[in-house]
Each structure stands twice: as structure tokens, then as C-alpha cells.
């Protein structure tokens, strides 16, 4: 099946995931917005939603992990008020490890989805798939 711009549905679906992989928020939102506003293929529309949802999931997870050092800094600043100090040196290493794992997971997932999309397939990502199913109605996206 072809899209309105003349490429196959699978290729455009793949492009949505790959743009999420290398492009960042603005290109991802632009291509997903185009798909949602202009294309009728349900699989393609769900792929656009899934790409944005996955990108959002990993962005939020990274932000939450990034809050851990900030929390320790706040505790340390409060301890300084009482002529003491508080630090956990290994936390920085743990946060860096978790951040790296999140980044690698996001890239592997988006790559997998991009290649599967060429054949109009998908890779299940439990929490995201359940949220998409819960908040979208078939034929009314």
C-alpha cells in the first residue's frame, strides 16, 4: 500500500522510527503529525503514536534518573547548613550506568522497530503497547 506522498506504508513507518532515533523531538513530531493528520492507514498511524510514546518514555525515564544526583545535592546543601556534608560517590557511577543502559535500550528498540516496520511488523514493548491500546480507539485515532 502506498502513502499520499508515494512511498510504501512500511517505508514511512520505518522513517518515523528512524527519525526518532537520530532526529530528536521536532522532526519526530513533524513526521508523526503528518502521519496522524494525512494518512489513513491504521498500522502507520499506530506506528507514529508508538514512536512518539517510546521517545517520550525514554526521555521521562532519563529525566527521573537525572533527578537522583540533584536530590543528593539538595541533601548535601541542607547538611552544609549544619556544618556537615553528605555525599555518595558511587551514585554518580550508578546514574551514569543507568543513563547509558536507557540510551542503548532506546536505540536498540527504535532500530528494531524501524527494521520491522519495513514489513509492517512491530516489536512489542509491554507498557507502551498497553498505554496505546488503552488511550486510542480503533478507527478513531
In short:
This protein is mainly α and 141 residues long. It has helices spanning 9-22, 25-38, 42-81, 89-117, 126-135.
Q: What ranges have pLDDT less than 50 throughout 5 or more consecutive residues?
A: none
For the record, give the distance between the C-alpha atoms at the N and C termini, rounded to a whole number.
19 Å
- Approximately how much helix is present in the residues? over 70%
Q: Name the shape in a single word.
A: elongated
Radius of gyration: 20 Å
Count of distinct strands: 0
Number of spatially distinct domains: 1
* Pattern of helices and strands: HHHHH
The biggest beta sheet reads: none
What is the residue-averaged pLDDT? 90
- How large a portion of the residues is in β-strands, by DSSP E? under 5%
* Individual helix count: 5
What structural category arises from helix and sheet content? mainly alpha
Amino acid at each position: 500500500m502506498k502513502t499520499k506522498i508515494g512511498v510504501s506504508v512500511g517505508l514511512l513507518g520505518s522513517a518515523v522510527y528512524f527519525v526518532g532515533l537520530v532526529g530528536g523531538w521536532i522532526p519526530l513530531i513533524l513526521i508523526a503529525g503528518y502521519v496522524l493528520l494525512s494518512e489513513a492507514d491504521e498500522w502507520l498511524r499506530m506506528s507514529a503514536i508508538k514512536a512518539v510514546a517510546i521517545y517520550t518514555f525514554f526521555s521521562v525515564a532519563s529525566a527521573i534518573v537525572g533527578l537522583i544526583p540533584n536530590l543528593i545535592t539538595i541533601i548535601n546543601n541542607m547538611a552544609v547548613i549544619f556544618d556537615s556534608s553528605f555525599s555518595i560517590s558511587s551514585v554518580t557511577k550508578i546514574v551514569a550506568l543507568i543513563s547509558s543502559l536507557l540510551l542503548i535500550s532506546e536505540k536498540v528498540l527504535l532500530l528494531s522497530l524501524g527494521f520491522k516496520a519495513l514489513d509492517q511488523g512491530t516489536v512489542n514493548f509491554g507498557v507502551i503497547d498497553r498505554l496505546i491500546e488503552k488511550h486510542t480507539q480503533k478507527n478513531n485515532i
